[in-house]
Design brief:
With about 375 residues, the protein is α+β, with helices and mostly antiparallel strands. About 30% of the residues lie in helices and about 25% in strands.
């Protein structure tokens, strides 16, 4: 092959290389452009979805407020409107507190179940508790001022067989262990609660006295997540104390009935002495019962002083409040052993509410209460 032929071939190869280079560059730019367009489209769609979600949540909260207002004059219509406040939301949307409040306030009372009691009191005169880690046992008598505390640690070779917790001036009324077994708290007729640190060599050293109540302590409870301690009292109030792993906040949040002032809004607290208190399994709610014949649910997800749900309790004094393990049911047991049960599961509440009302909103009611929504039957009675 001559030198001229070789040069021609080299020239052709060089041209092909340039052509391939620019072709690949163009393809790359096209692909990059498409990727950019796709990213922009995705971002626009996300912004649109976020805006739509916020609009749904705002509309849901607005409808919930209407349901609460309506419950004063028309309970049945209020229950159906409350369901629609829930229905406008899609999976993944946040459930506004106002919706949760309206949903439970209007529906839970409308679907309550009551089971007859035996007429016998369930109030114990004594109490025995085992700490969650099974390393401590406590016992008390409501006629005594002291609490007996026994260490159960395997292989313990030093220290006393039992400790006496003697910080109260009057009879002990309640005792509770924290979920992590770090604390034991005692309450008394002397209007105080006393907290003892079980991680100290001697738990009786340096007790923390919680004051502020003006009448006897009637109940104590730690939240399951260990973040809160509540004290209940005959003075109609609860005090909610935040707890950390290494410290304890002595200043409690007071949950009480309070008129509005320039500094703070009104608070819907109890109008009678507190008789029972408990936390939901997920620590999202605090439930309390009082002699005002109500049970109240206080939201711990936000400001407990502002989000209160009021449930009608039995005429007899409620001595025990318990949540089911999944938190779907709340049971109040009165002194005559009558049980009042509220279903707090949103899906079940809708079903029970529809069964209780037995109808849908009429077109006229729909236009009056839900003018921005297209008419639909809230309850399905065909199945």
């Amino acid at each position: 092959m001559g030198s001229r032929s070789r040069k021609s071939i080299l020239f052709i190869l060089a041209g092909l290389s340039i052509f391939v280079f620019f072709s690949l560059s163009r393809i790359k730019r096209v692909n990059q452009g498409r990727a950019t367009e796709a990213a922009v489209a995705t971002a626009v769609q996300q912004v649109t979805n976020d805006a739509s979600q916020r609009m749904r949540e705002a509309l849901s909260a607005n409808i919930a407020a209407r349901a609460l207002d309506l419950s004063v004059v028309d309970t049945e219509a209020a229950m159906l409107v409350a369901i629609e406040a829930f229905n406008v939301l899609k999976p993944g949307d946040a459930l506004p507190h106002t919706v949760e409040h309206a949903f439970w306030q209007t529906l839970a009372n409308g679907t309550v179940r009551k089971l007859a009691g035996t007429g016998q009191s369930s109030q114990p005169a004594t109490g025995q508790l085992l700490s969650p880690d099974e390393q401590w046992q406590a016992a008390f008598n409501t006629n005594e001022t002291k609490v007996h505390l026994w260490p159960l640690m395997a292989g313990q070779s030093s220290g006393p067989d039992a400790y006496l917790l003697t910080q109260h001036a009057q009879a002990v009324t309640a005792v509770a262990f924290s979920p992590n077994s770090r604390w034991i708290v005692t309450g008394s007729l002397d209007k105080t609660a006393v907290l003892y640190n079980l991680q100290q060599d001697d738990p009786t050293n340096d007790p923390i006295r919680l004051t502020g109540h003006t009448q006897a302590i009637t109940g104590l409870a730690f939240s399951p997540d260990g973040k809160w301690l509540v004290t209940a009292s005959d003075d109609h109030t609860l005090r909610l104390y935040p707890i950390t792993q290494t410290d304890f906040a002595e200043k409690g949040i007071v949950l009480e009935a309070r008129a509005a002032t320039e500094e703070s809004p009104a608070q819907d607290g109890h109008g009678g002495g507190i008789t029972a208190v408990t936390f939901s399994p997920d620590s999202a709610w605090l439930a309390s019962a009082a002699r005002d014949q109500t049970v109240r649910l206080w939201s711990l997800a936000d400001d407990p002083q502002q989000h209160v749900i009021v449930l009608d309790a039995p005429a007899e004094t409620v001595s025990l409040l318990t949540f089911s393990p999944e938190g779907h049911w709340l049971t109040a047991v009165s002194d005559n052993n009558q049980s009042t049960i509220w279903n707090l599961d949103a899906h079940d509440l809708k079903i029970y509410a529809c069964a209780a009302v037995g109808r849908n909103l009429t077109p006229a009611e729909w236009v009056l209460h839900l003018p921005e929504l297209r008419y639909q039957e809230t309850c399905d009675f065909k199945g």
